[in-house]
Amino acid sequence: MIAKSEYVLLLLAILIALLAPIMLGGFRPRFWYGLESLVFLLFSIFCLTRVVQHQSFLIRDYKPIYLLLIAWVAWPLIQLIPLPASMVEILSNKSYATYRLAQPDSPFLPLSTQKFATADEFLKRLMYVCMFTMMLFLLRHQIQLRVAIVLIAVFALLHSFYVFIEYAADPEAVVRSTYTNRNHFALYITMSLSLMIGVCLSILNESGLRGLYVLLNGQLLGMFGIILVLLTVLMFTQSRGAAVAFIAAMVLTWLILGATKVRGESSRGHHVFFLVSSAVVTSILIFGTSDLFSKFTVQNIFGDERWMQWRDSLRLAVDYWLTGSGAGTYEFVFPAYKSAEYRPLVYHHVHNDYIETICNEGVIGLTLFSGIFLSWLIIMRRTYRSRRDPFIKGISFGICLAVMTAVIHAFFDFNIQVPANTLFLFTFMGIGLATINMNRRLSVRGDT
Asked: What is the pTM of this model?
């Protein structure tokens, strides 16, 4: 039985995550402040509802990932705490030297070189974890999951139709829907596409269809149509990073989850479908996305501005290697390391989330950031092996594919710095854990 309040809260939370990209990807302060306010308000209602209904927060099965999430959220706060100047000098000599230029006699100094930017980063992370928690605890039944999938598909199609209008108006224009950057929009599309592939797998496994009979299944045909639309939109974005990340994620997710053989489970249809779809999708992306691999040459690697920014950012990372310059401070610190051959632009972020993380938060922050995704993947894989329900396994596979795509794309862009995409990512992660553990208490009958 689904409590009406839980159902409404879940729908509102999913709608917030899906509406976030409309506000330029939430990439402007006035937008992300509004986004934070909505999520915090909804989370407060969620907590109050659980207290009134005498429901507890059982996180025993998720303790490792929650410890990492709490530490990840708390790290910017730690960077803001005024510490003895002698301690700051030991932990981050560069931060100490920076502050000494403006505050030569101050006995206490923070690790962050820009306190307001770090405070903003703390609020964003708190928002992401609140959304993750709501998905994890509110999504408890398959009917809720099916509604969530329908909403994600509808919004992805709405973005797609908007892109088709853009393309029809000007075929030479950069296709990016409501985002400020086509690569950020491409990640949103690839994550939605991944989930739709998971839906196809679940339908195929549930129906037990083989051979040409697959073509007679109306649900599968409908999903194939949605996938084709999203693939077309992905090609229109011309995002090399998204295409490469998606292809690599398919291979890795298959190795981690898809190729897993559980005793007593027949998964021939699952395997055949995914292998064929992988080949088709890879072919479409390679031949449909112009100039996809041509820029991955030695000359372009060392001459492209993006790679030069990586090189200079690594110099910054060496200076702030342990604790970083402060979460969210990259745009303020990087100009001192920028080479003269750059264009005269303000570089708010580096096109690599992992490099930016180590610049802003040092090895400590990078360890926490990477640990969250690794812990999530370990939980998903361990539980995936014990499930038999074809719907649960198919959707879980699609969500893992979506998260893996985002994690790999982070090597080529700064999607984790885009509030709408990161909120979408944590929404998927919460849905993934809720899905893979759905109805596990019914396993007494062996029907998991």
From this structure: 0.91
